[in-house]
From TrEMBL:
It comes from Crucibulum laeve. Keywords: Coiled coil, GTP-binding, Nucleotide-binding. GO terms for molecular function: GTP binding. This is GTP binding protein. Belongs to the TRAFAC class TrmE-Era-EngA-EngB-Septin-like GTPase superfamily. Septin GTPase family.
Amino acid sequence: MPITPRRRNKVKGVQFTIMVVGASGTGRTTFVNTLCESDVLSHKVCDSPETAHVEEGIKIKPANVELEEDGLRIALTIVDTPGFGENIDNEHAFQEIMSYLERQYDDILAEQSRIKRNPRFRDNRVHALLYFITPTGHALREIDIELMRRLAPRVNVIPVIGKADSLTPRELKAFKKRVMEDIDHYDIPIYNFPYDVEEDDEESIQDNMELRAMLPFAIVGSEEEIEIDGQLVRARIYPWGVVEVDNPDHSDFVRLRAAILGSHLGDLKSLTEDVLYETYRTEKLSRSVHSDIRDSQILPEEMATQSVRIKEEQLRREEEKLREVELRMQREINEKKQELMAKEMTLRNLESRLASQNQNSPY
Ligand SMILES: Nc1nc2c(ncn2[C@@H]2O[C@H](COP(=O)(O)OP(=O)(O)OP(=O)(O)O)[C@@H](O)[C@H]2O)c(=O)[nH]1
Ligand SMILES: [Mg+2]
């Protein structure tokens, strides 16, 4: 008997990308491994004293992992950015991160304007950037303000305090307050769990208000597990006590995890795709119009004609795509019609053969 290949039970999940940025040693790797409950990222090997002074620059490293959250399968991409903030001049690091984010937008822009879609295309747009603030207990540093201010128009920035157990609850509360005052003062458009009192239901307004009040999230990460009341929990063990990662009295980890991988995953995705990406696309299109104008010294009044031309070009491509679909459908209909006609013909032949057999039959 021939063996028929068994169809794999493919449940479609959702793709989500998180970028983690912050100074070295703020706990990014530990946080990612805690979030994914596996060793997705490896720890940095310490520099030797001979090479510690060498400025290596930033490396941007994506890693993929499959998770399941409330029955939903998540194909998670984690983009780590080791080397950020380690150099005297951080301009290069800002630009590297920015161009990584924009490159993902450019890729999808190119894919969307293709007539034939590439079935293997992977959308790598970053949906959330967790910015790890060093737990200094003072206020934001210039580098924190600069990074968040520059990147927030391109990505949902969620500020978090790394290694939050270094601060006492009182220090943490005051630090959170100061950080948010700075974010307000510098008008940094972070992702602040937006809600609409007119549109949203009572429950989600409440949820968003609570999450907003927690900003910046206090993070504690650990790759160690200990047994508490017969249950294995992730915790940091100190001579004077234990900090439990999942205990809401010890850190905001659980609320942050539930928000980014659960309740707010959809919102972060649609904000990225419908607002941040669309803004980038519009800016890029108008930039190319402006540079065309500069290059060919087109008069300002001809600018409108240029943008109309771009719109016409887009329309033309859309029309072409539609025409292709229409042609394909027409072809399929014709094939089906011919198959039907052939079947009708066979049926008629069979009928007439049967009829003539019946006539010749002696019964
Ligand atoms: N107290 C405390 N220490 C932590 C926490 N998370 C990580 N650490 C420790 O801090 C050190 C650095 O943590 P990593 O997770 O490697 O930090 P990183 O941001 O990935 O650092 P680089 O990869 O070197 O840039 C390690 O010794 C961790 O064990 C935390 O929540 N609290
Ligand atoms: Mg690391």
